[in-house]
Amino acid sequence: MSNFTRPTLPTRVSAFCRRWLPMILLAPAAVLLGAWSFQDGEEKVTVKGQDVPLLTVFKSIKKQAGYNFFYAANFVNDKERVSVDMQNARVDDVLRKVLGHDYTWVYNENAVSITKKKEEVKRSEAPAAPVKDSSVNQITVSGSVTDAKGAPIPGATVMVKGTHDGASTDENGHFSLAGVRPNAVLVISSVGFEKREIPVKGKTILAKLNVSVNDLDETVVVAYGETTQRANTGAVTVVRGEQIQNLPNRSFDKSLQGMVPGLQITNGTGQPGGGVGNIVLRGIATGGELVDGTTVRNPLIVIDGIPVSQDPIQIRISGTAISNPLSQLNPSDIETITVLKDAAAIALYGSKASNGVILVTTKRGKSGKTVFSFRHQTDIASRWKGEMQVLDRQEYLDLLYETYRNTDPARWTDDAIRADLQQKFPVQANGDFYPAPNWYSELYTGDATTVTNEISMSGGSDRNNFYLNVEHSDQKGIIRRTGYKRTSLRFNFENRASDWLKFGINTTFSYNRQDYSNTSDAFQTNGIAEVMSPLNPVRLADGNYMLNYEWGTSSAIPLANPLAAAEYNINRNTSYRGLAKLYGEVGFLKYLRFTSNVGVDFMLTESKEKVDPRLFDPVNYSTGVGRVEEMDLRNANIINTNILRFDRQINEKHIINILLGQEAQVLNRKHLLVSVKGLGLPYYDQINSPGATVQRYGGVSTRETLLSFFGQANYAFRDRYFISSSLRRDGSSRFGDRKRFGTYWSAGLGWLITSEPFMKQVPWLSYLKIRGSIGAAGNSAAIDRLTRYDILEISTFQGNVAVYPGTSPGNPDVRWEETFTWDAGLEARFLQDRIIVAADIYKRNTSDLISRINLPQSSGYYSVLSNIGNIENSGVELSLSADIIRNGTFRWNVSANWSANQNKLTKANVPSAATVNNKMANEVGRNYNSFYLKKWAGVNPADGLPTWIDSTGKTTSDYNAAIREFVGKPQPDGFGAVTSTLNFGNLELSAMFYYQYGFQVFNSALANPLLTDGRYPYANQVKQALDRWQKPGDIASNPRRMLNNTDGGDRFSTRYLFDGDYIRLKNITLSYTFPGNMLGWSGLSSLRVYVQGNNLALWTKFPGQDPDNSDLTGSTFYAYPSQRSFSGGLNVNF
């Protein structure tokens, strides 16, 4: 079938994405022309009034055009009455009408500063008679406002204390204020910064404001809206974009480790491109399998209102998922990340939210001058743990000869052993083995660099704002021929056409390419440095690669040279991703707003694997054939959300917010796969290569829908009592007709105790709030799109096509998983916010767990997905932030968080101790998916045989007589982080430690094959193998070694189960921000330089790569190694 051609549709889609999609996403930039099309004061307003105060005119202009007015009370009498009737007139003309010719005014972004003309000022200031009063000495005060590092703060408010006189700073942080008494006090404030009061004492003020990290009135993004920390009744944690943008992770989720109480993140792998890790919020709340990857346990992730797919769209065709789709999003585009935890926070997302919700808000432009920014960062990474301690050549040969002799000493003399090894391993012309290679230096690159460059521009006015960012990142892998490249573009734009209408668009597009070079095959590349025999050379005497090796059992399983595979084979994923949201909002009837948006999450992945015909192919289990496989995967998620809001404040006592919404979502997924074998020449790499024949082909196309209706009501009284409630009804096509709909709800209460009058007598307590919530959310991700259908399979035998049932029947009666949660929280601040404390306790009960149960053989099936029982999670979360020193330019802050969660199965519809796999099982009252293994009892000193514990509690050498017991769990009892930050002037030094404790990890790498007592005799072993039994009476850790021993101690038991507790020095960062007065000559508005180290140290007793590299079953195998990295970079604003 040499004329077989690849399907054309994905190719056309791919070409379209490469050529046209970036232009389409950039098209809205044309709208920006209107953002700069007006001069200050050119906005049109309508002002009417007979004999009204001047202040009324100012308020009318502010409402229509957004201007704030600043003036000295002794110069401008805002109670003076005027008459005006101007329609659709310029702001400047209106001011000229009502102020006349005696005043002058200056526009500064959205501020208008009004003063009398100089001659009028002199006239008004001339006293009728000498008066001893400080007002006669009024002066003009000027200065600048910067942050603690010297960067200017535009738009800061500078007010004279006790008056309404004030001004705002320009884009360079400068201000000028006339008519100020010499003994006055200036109050300087800005959103996100601590307010500061400064006595005038002169004509020039240089004010530095400290960031208000926990500003209670700052906007917090929540489900379908915004609130403030003060008014929020839910358990939420906010992480700012600047906290993660310079970390060396390709995906933002891994940067959150240690920053959010209750959020447990494991890295899984150090694979370039992020690698698929695990995100668990407040314990495992689902029994779902690995549906579409590992994301079934992950929280819902919503980016700018669009729920995004976390399906591992970049996958190995013949293996497991290796790439994190969240790495396709640039972390530098993120403004804030809000983690929603309890029912009051998540229930509005209904059936998608039982695992929690992570809301990502991207950056937007701000009013003022257009700001250009440039960021550069270079990371240098290396294998953090160095080389695993394996046997050298002599140790290897001594152990191997002993293994032969133990098996049959009469047969295996030294000469016989050497002859056998010469048949299995390549030898030189003189019969000697080749020199032992250093597989680490051959396979690992040493230091691998990642270079990231990005440029952005942002700005706007009171009517428009925009943000544009272009980024390119090139990550080299520490394993040869591995890497990841990303080019991303983001464009956000919003226009407020009038007081009642605004619209906008948020878009991002990314191109991603990943080279993984067989890094997920069990004994390819990342594991080869440990398991490869030191008798195997990399190259032969002529300098060419030794292409294939034999190793393992007596069957001499072949193994391709990983260096030759990296050079000759192709293992690549190429993907394109686009996220876009178009939205509009209309205000009407004073208190009502209607918002509608349409969002799209589109992904196209092209995966390709080629095995050179000269190399061993683990799929076809052959050498000399060759194989090419290509896969196209397309996901399109379209969502439309419509919301009606009612917001009203009554008598400054009552605040009422009501929301009604409807949402419809459609998810389309298509998957095409073609595999051919029989490559005539090594350089053939296409599925239509001459002579190639189709080996397998297939595809699937699915479509699912979700329809939702929801509502929310919030009430606040006197800014101290808060009530919230929500209700949502979801219908999903994933479920059968009788189980399609689910209803979810929440109720929350909050009491801001420090707003009570009686708390005024407690000055050391600046903030105290208690809150609580109850409610229910669901999980539809625990099943896939086809669970309710019977799946048929097709087979061909002797030219005839047969259709037969699959291994699992459909189950249309599967019910939604539902999680009922209650939460109680406390938030407190002491000593003028020097100490900030937050605490939560919670309990989550998940009912109708969905998992697979085994069926009797008589059914004709293996298993079926069904509702199997209930899980309970209960826990505590604590966080603390304390300014140990806060004195002028020096500040030392220590922050810490700790989370503890207990998980157990409370109900099971399956037999007790139901086996999950060969390592895990479940039982009511125990942790869900606990380790269930035979207990290792060591080595019998008399005969060197392995022993385990039997049902009587005694040791036995009969593995089948030993019993399995519950011996541990993969989820930790607790985890958290401690961060110390020192600020001295513009210099900042910070360090973070992260820890986990109370969990176990199964070291599958030791079980297969690094410590296996001769089962894999030709694989290298770790140094621990030297402590083995050799003669009667020996007290040893490892049993007697036997050639190809299948009855040894390497079978599943607690021999390979270890405590995973660890403490990691996760990050140290040193940065310096140049003060504004040092940059005046350069044209830069701000400059920050930094260096940092990541993953610098690990304290653990775990005898493997990294306990954080474990999978969902709590096992570590040959994952891509964790890396230590050192970074340097700079952030520049122009």
From TrEMBL:
**What stretches pass through the bilayer?**
20-38
- Which Pfam families does the record associate with it? CarbopepD_reg_2, Plug
Family matches, as PROSITE patterns = TONB_DEPENDENT_REC_3 (PS52016)
Topology relative to the membrane: Multi-pass membrane protein
Listed InterPro entries: Beta-barrel_TonB_sf, CarboxyPept-like_regulatory, Plug_dom, Plug_dom_sf, TonB-dep_OMP_SusC/RagA, TonB-dep_OMP_SusC/RagA_CS, TonB-dep_rcpt-like
Domain TonB-dependent receptor plug, residue spans: 229-357
Q: How is this protein annotated for GO cellular component?
A: cell outer membrane
Keyword list (alphabetical) reads:
Cell outer membrane, Membrane, Transmembrane, Transmembrane beta strand, Transmembrane helix, Transport
Q: Which domain of life is it from?
A: Bacteria
Q: Which Gene3D superfamilies match?
A: Carboxypeptidase-like, regulatory domain (2.60.40.1120), TonB-dependent receptor, beta-barrel domain (2.40.170.20), TonB-dependent receptor, plug domain (2.170.130.10)
Q: Where in the cell is it found?
A: Cell outer membrane
Query: What is the similarity comment for this entry?
Result: Belongs to the TonB-dependent receptor family.
- Protein's name according to its UniProt entry: TonB-linked SusC/RagA family outer membrane protein
